[in-house]
Amino acid sequence: MRAPRAVLGQSLCLASLAPAVSLTACQTFHTDLERSQRAFEHADYERALAIFRELEPEVTVRFSLQEQAQYAYLRGMTDYRVGYKVDARHWLAVAHALDESSANMLPKDWKGRLKDTLGELNEQVYSSGIETLAESQEAAAKAPPASASTDKKPAAKPKSEDEP
Q1: What is the DSSP track for 36-74?
Q2: What is the pLDDT of residues 29-47, one digit of tens each?
Q3: Alpha-carbon span 127 to 9, nearest angstrom
Q4: CATH number of the domain at 21-142, out of 1.10.3470, 3.40.50, 1.10.10, 1.25.40?
Q5: Which of 13, 67, 97, 107 sees the fewest Cβ atoms within 10 Å?
Q6: pLDDT at residue 135 in the model
Q7: Do residues 85 and 79 touch, judged by C-beta distance below 8 A?
Q8: Is the per-residue pLDDT at 64 higher than 70?
Q9: How many helices (H) and strands (E) does the chain have?
């Protein structure tokens, strides 16, 4: 008789821990999103991209729609700055769609930058074909990483003072 009570007690104990473990896991994902944004804001694009890629499978599962829009925007702008224009166009289009689905998903200044950058990428596709985006992505992939050079930053689009 004691064995079933012990098992029941262990089950209840594990069940009571499950929400705490889940909450901790979600907090980790949110913390990672914040870390990736800080890396992006400090022009550490390779680090930001590594965090984004690690988070990608969890975005639709763990994040609210607003956080998904934030992820897509930051991921797209990071890809753009690194030179991965095909990926940048994809993620910026996702951010745009999420932002259009509900008001106030993204900050106003991000919306302006999103519109300009996505417009530039779309114009390049419409005028020269998707291949031109892929070619720039292949060239960026062949370039040495920023950490390989001692005093040079990666060949990425410079950002203005007011953007993250």
Answers
A1: HHHHHHTT-HHHHHHHHHHHGGGHHHHS-HHHHHHHHHH
A2: 889 899 999 999 999 999 9
A3: 67
A4: 1.25.40
A5: 13
A6: 74
A7: yes
A8: yes
A9: 7, 0
